[in-house]
Amino acid sequence: MSELTNRLQQQLIAGATRPLMQDANQHWYTGSELNLEKNVWKNYWKSKGIGHNDIVLVSLTNSVTYTLVIHSLWEIGAIVQPINPKTTEIQISELEEQYHYAAIILDADSKEINILNSLFANLPRLTTLHEPEVKIYIRDRHVARLIEEPTEDEIALIMHTSGTTGKPKRVGLTHRQLLVGAFNVIDSEELSETDSTFILMPMFHINAMVISNLATRLSNGQLLFRPKFSAHLFWKEVSTEMVTWVSLTPAIVAILLQREEQPTKNNLRFLRTASAPLLPSIHQEFKQRFAIPLIESYGMTEATSQIAQNPLEDPIQNTVGKVFGVQIKILDTEKNELGPNQVGEIALKGDSIITHYLDPQPEAFHKQWLLTGDLGSINEDGYLSISGRSKEMIIRGGENVNPLAVEDCLNVLKFIREMAVVGTPDKIYGENVTAVIVPKVSSPDHRHQLALLNELANEQLLPVERPTKYIFSNQLPKNATGKIQRTLLAQEVIQQLKEA
């Protein structure tokens, strides 16, 4: 076993008689029960010829089953690629055509995907848990792989990220990187077996995968799985389940502030936010109303989650805290290192930081340092502040939205002459996905066009990718070479929305 899989196994053994995980129906499972289910999964994969270096696509909602599926695949040396369970049939088909998965796992209530019926065999197995069974598709004529224990530097997890240029990139994280990343969280948050947390953020994100899931398991804590965040249940369950910490997004924080519910008796040491900037006004209002420590942090998939976090005992508002477990530089445009309080591009290096993307992206690195594309500065006390993003990526509710992918989808509509997608401010979700359309023929009535846009977006885009605003215009601002000036366009749209 790798050190990662060995420690995950030891958690189940050490907690054999102790409740370690709770499902969405509030049923607790002991380490012994979890270990049984994990081994059943492991034997299932072996019987189907799934093994070393096979890539398995996992499209599931948060569940106890999810973490055990991953654990079992890692033990046999397979690679897990988690994706959004709302991924469309077209998107899954495109992934399969490109990467040829050995197996695909879907939720029981997922829609039928035609390509799977022609290339895969549906071979379900009975679960020992009180959770729904999942759909398991094994590739027809799959060449059986050897069952080999993974080494530390073999890839365990593949995630898609928007990276530093706005183009989707595949990030491969090794067993060693996942272990180091998780222990960076454990050490900075002082996690132990007395801690417990909800997994509310989706497991196909690095935040839930490493910060909530792996860090809790490797510190022998308790995990409580929920399919998604529920505003009306959050404070109630915090009180009844007596969790000690929860990882949230700024969007969730804003939603909690809009509601009347207040926390009653609770056991919270802190709440932490990540995945998007937290507005200072939101942070201050939360602090005044709830009197619960709200810790800001900073991370990314390429860093195996956490890069910096505010110290529990000495947090400073409007910063993401101190760098923990990684090396950092602030670089100017010539790649020279800047001093304290000077704003430049954040560059990273360390045991939890990738040294390359699975698809070559040499421009994302400089002398073995990862160029994040984020702008920031570090003060004399070592606190990191994020000033913005050097690229035009949209972050909505903590999820990255690639505007080029949205444009690529919608531009097929024949009435569009040209279009651009930009982010505009949203108090709850951080940013709206706003599409500015220049139609071929001007018209005062856009109802039919809007219907076509929404129909196509609903069919082919993830919910988070679908534009929340459409604006019709006569032209887009461009530079001398004809390139759309996205920053200027966003400024014009924001001003237009203010005046509306």
Automatic annotation (TrEMBL):
AMP-binding enzyme C-terminal domain location, by residue? 406-483
Matching entries from InterPro entries are given as:
AMP-bd_C, AMP-bd_C_sf, AMP-binding_CS, AMP-dep_synth/lig_dom, ANL_N_sf
Record carries keyword Chloroplast: no
Q: Which GO terms describe its biological process?
A: fatty acid metabolic process
| GO MF | medium-chain fatty acid-CoA ligase activity
**Per the record's keyword annotation, is Phosphoprotein included, yes or no?**
no
Q: Which key words are in the record?
A: Ligase
Locate the AMP-dependent synthetase/ligase domain: which residues?
Answer: 23-358
Q: Which family does it belong to?
A: Belongs to the ATP-dependent AMP-binding enzyme family.
The entry's protein name is Acyl-CoA synthetase
Q: What is the lineage of its organism?
A: Bacteria, Bacillati, Bacillota, Bacilli, Lactobacillales
